[in-house]
């Protein structure tokens, strides 16, 4: 009916034409002339009444909630989108920066290593000692960084940091986490969107962020010393928030 201004002749009229009239998609001038003629035709009027009844049945249906697994996938995608992307660094630029810091060109560096039988690290800004030197002890930043210190009413402020982490801490494994959640009567449709060790009011704990429907997060804080299957006392906090 797009661009048509002439009123279709009838009866009879096609079901598609009557449905377009019922849906209000015909040009106004065509619909104004066609409706009284359609309503005067018994067969066409029955089709209009059937369409009215169908709409009433649809309006009477209860709202259909989004399946949990779909909501969880959307939440996970939103959480991944919120995580900061790693900066893109040119490989050539990184090599030049490394050589400047070592004070050597790439060819000189390789030649020196071959001549003296030592191995030089190619990581920017680092130089490994010779075989005779005692290596300096190394520490992992993940192990040395202190956990987030939170109070019970500050859990929402840690969402951004915890979403970036997948650190089970003293819980160690997803199975242990699942057992602690089950002990507190907490069900989850998938892996945590984020998990990290924290301290809650000075007590060592683990905070997990679970999907809780579209646009919502469930924040669960567990005591790794007491949580487990059939141990509800191991759940220190359980709240649902909707981030801004």
TrEMBL record:
Transmembrane segment boundaries: 102-122
Keyword Transmembrane helix: yes
Keyword set, alphabetical order: Membrane, Transmembrane, Transmembrane helix
Biased composition (Polar residues): 126-144
Record region (Disordered): 126-146
Protein name per the record: Anti-sigma-M factor RsmA
Species of origin: Lentzea atacamensis
């Amino acid at each position: 009916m797009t661009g048509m201004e002439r009123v279709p002749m009838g009866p009879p009229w096609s079901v598609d034409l009557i449905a377009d009239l019922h849906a209000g998609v015909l040009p106004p001038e065509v619909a104004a002339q066609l409706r009284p003629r359609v309503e005067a035709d018994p067969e066409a009027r029955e089709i209009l009444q059937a369409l009215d009844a169908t709409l009433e049945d649809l309006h009477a249906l209860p709202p259909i909630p989004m399946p949990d697994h779909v909501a969880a996938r959307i939440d996970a995608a939103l959480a991944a989108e919120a995580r900061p992307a790693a900066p893109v660094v040119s490989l050539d630029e990184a090599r030049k920066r490394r050589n400047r810091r070592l004070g050597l060109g790439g060819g000189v560096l390789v030649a020196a290593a071959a001549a003296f039988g030592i191995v030089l690290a190619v990581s920017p800004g680092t130089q490994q000692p010779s075989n005779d030197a005692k290596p300096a002890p190394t520490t992992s930043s993940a192990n040395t960084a202190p956990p987030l210190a939170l109070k019970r009413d500050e859990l929402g402020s840690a969402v951004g940091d915890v979403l970036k982490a997948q650190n089970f801490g003293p819980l160690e494994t997803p199975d242990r986490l699942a057992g602690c959640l089950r002990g507190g009567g907490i069900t989850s449709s998938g892996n945590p969107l984020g998990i990290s060790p924290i301290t809650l009011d000075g007590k060592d704990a683990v905070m997990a962020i679970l999907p809780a429907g579209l646009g919502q997060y469930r924040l669960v804080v567990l005591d790794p010393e007491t949580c487990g299957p059939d141990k509800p006392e191991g759940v220190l906090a359980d709240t649902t928030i909707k981030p801004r």
